[in-house]
Amino acid sequence: MVQLKSVNKHYGSLHVLKDINLEVGKGEVIILLGPSGSGKSTLCRTINRLETIDSGSISIDGKILPEEGKELANLRAEVGMVFQSFNLFAHKSILDNVTLGPRKVRGLSKTEAEEEAMALLRKVGVDSQAQKMPAQLSGGQQQRVAIARALAMRPKVMLFDEPTSALDPEMVNEVLDTMVNLAREGMTMIVVTHEMGFARRAADRIVFLANGEIVEQATPDEFFSNPKSDRAKDFLGKILNH
């Protein structure tokens, strides 16, 4: 579903992604782990061209990600993204936030878009909040709305860039539970997170990055019980003994 071939990215003299090769199958859940500054978020953001790449190629469902223009917008619509900050439109109701994309981009009627939106809000457990404004919701509820909004575009792939890092601890699990349910339903997901319990529970594969390179890939059981590289052992030692 997603394929990165020899992807390189620089910020000036800083080489942040070094020859990244990665394939993500349909319905696979990939968790990107690694220390701060390892390139995880940058990698995630290149997959819908929020960050440009200097060399290599990225394809989604067999189509190369275009540089710009209408083709990029079309392909981007197939890649949902949920960030640390919820980025909801503060002046629009929850329902309007979720229906805006499908009406503007997919051309759905107001009725169709609202029916779909309510079904998605039910799925993420916030349908009772549909008429409220974002500021009236907790952080965890807002993040679940952001997930519903991304799903409303019927994406083939969902990208999550540390979706729980801005949340109070008691709100983290409600968002992670929503993501676990999505994974069980077969959504292709690429997730940057520091939530190790979630990584163990939801991932098909852990991809560990350090210094802009993929250092190792393994199932959660293998990675957490028997990491191969010294870099991963060091990382896990610090995280798990914290």
Automatic annotation (TrEMBL):
It is found in: Cell membrane. Residues 2-236 form the ABC transporter domain. InterPro entries: AAA+_ATPase, ABC_ATPase_HisP-typ, ABC_transporter-like_ATP-bd, ABC_transporter-like_CS, MetN_ABC_transporter-like, P-loop_NTPase. Pfam families: ABC_tran (PF00005). GO terms for molecular function: ATP binding; ATP hydrolysis activity; ATPase-coupled polar amino acid-transporter activity. The keyword Glycoprotein does not apply. Its main location: membrane. Its EC number is 7.4.2.1. It is a peripheral membrane protein. It catalyses: a polar amino acid(out) + ATP + H2O = a polar amino acid(in) + ADP + phosphate + H(+). Transmembrane segments: none annotated. It comes from the Bacteria. Keywords: Amino-acid transport, ATP-binding, Cell membrane, Membrane, Nucleotide-binding, Transport. SUPFAM superfamilies: P-loop containing nucleoside triphosphate hydrolases. One of its GO terms (cellular component) is plasma membrane. PANTHER family: AMINO ACID IMPORT ATP-BINDING PROTEIN (PTHR43166), GLUTAMATE_ASPARTATE IMPORT ATP-BINDING PROTEIN GLTL (PTHR43166:SF9). Belongs to the ABC transporter superfamily. This is ABC-type polar-amino-acid transporter.
